[in-house]
Amino acid sequence: MKVGVLGSGDVAKALAAGFLKHGHEVMMGSRTPARLREWASGHPKASIGGFAEAAAFGEALVLAVKGKAAAEALRLAGAANLTGKLVMDATNPIEDAPPAKGVLKFFTSLDQSLMEQLQNEFTGAHFVKAFNSVGNAMFVNPQFKGGKPTMFICGNSEAAKQSASRILDEFGWEVADMGGAEAARAIEPLCMLWCIPGFLRNQWTHAFKLLL
Ligand SMILES: NC(=O)c1ccc[n+]([C@@H]2O[C@H](COP(=O)([O-])OP(=O)(O)OC[C@H]3O[C@@H](n4cnc5c(N)ncnc54)[C@H](OP(=O)(O)O)[C@@H]3O)[C@@H](O)[C@H]2O)c1
């Protein structure tokens, strides 16, 4: 599959490396592609470009930018380049403020998630929340004593969620589908929960598992 990864930070790089590892074609997108040159020199099979180029390249897309800039990054990518495509949304609506006793502050409310805002603006894209509630070091085939970790996903398109689930299976995750885009109101705050042991005790190597 051709995957456009929108972002130039650690999350974008980790996911791009995962897609390459599993034999997909990757183009990473940034406002300043030059900042990806060093990374690309170590990953010669990946290409780099602007947000719009990466979005046009991808049959499926990954959104891996700062939460406050997510809508702006997608505007730069161009709505037409998103239409009909899976957009795996790894973003979190983290406020520009320090955590309070280890608890991150969000700029959204529990009545509307960031992913719903994005879905409302870019109606032709098929957003699927994924990869937002675990550290990027564990995105790709993580090994835990407790077995396979669970990735909570949601989105309005069943077909897009099936595509995302196939990718997550390759990346070594079991998938728990929580329903439509509204479920991102619950999945995005899992990031807050995941980060608490990190901020309080410098523990950053866990993941969630749903027991049945
Ligand atoms: N860090 C983790 O382990 C982790 C885990 C799960 C989820 N997340 C979430 O994943 C996302 C990416 O995190 P990150 O730590 O890799 O990177 P980040 O520092 O949160 O974001 C960097 C990206 O945001 C883009 N950006 C910033 N301001 C922008 C603007 N005004 N307009 C357009 N784009 C803008 C940058 O674009 P340019 O390339 O153009 O500079 C860059 O690609 C975040 O939403 C984060 O909450 C992080």
Commentary on this structure:
The longest helix has 13 residues, at 158-170. The strands form two sheets. Strands 3-2-1-4-5-6 form a six-stranded parallel sheet, sandwiched between helices. Helix content is 34%, strand content 16%. The mean pLDDT is 98. With 212 residues, it is an alpha/beta fold. The protein is built from nine helices and eight strands. NADP nicotinamide-adenine-dinucleotide phosphate (NAP) is lined by residues 7-12, 30-32, 64-67, 69, 72-73, 90-92, 94, 131-132, 135-136.
What can be said about this structure in brief?
By secondary structure, the protein is an alpha/beta fold. Helices cover 34% and strands 16% of the residues.
Give me the side-by-side strand order of the main sheet: 3-2-1-4-5-6
In terms of structural class, how would the helical and strand content be classed?
Answer: alpha/beta
The secondary-structure element order is: EHEHEHEHHEHEEHEHH
Which range best describes the helical content: under 10%, 10-25%, 25-40%, 40-55%, 55-70% or over 70%? 25-40%
Which stretches are low in confidence, meaning pLDDT under 50 for 5 or more residues running? none
Identify every distinct bound molecule in the structure, by name, code or SMILES: NADP nicotinamide-adenine-dinucleotide phosphate
Q: Looking at the chains present, what oligomeric state does this protein adopt?
A: single chain
Q: Quick one: overall form?
A: globular
Distance between the termini: 32 Å
Note the beta-strand portion: 15-25%
Number of strands: 8
The major sheet is characterized as: 6 strands, parallel
Helices, by number, come to 9
Radius of gyration: 16 Å
The averaged pLDDT comes out at 98
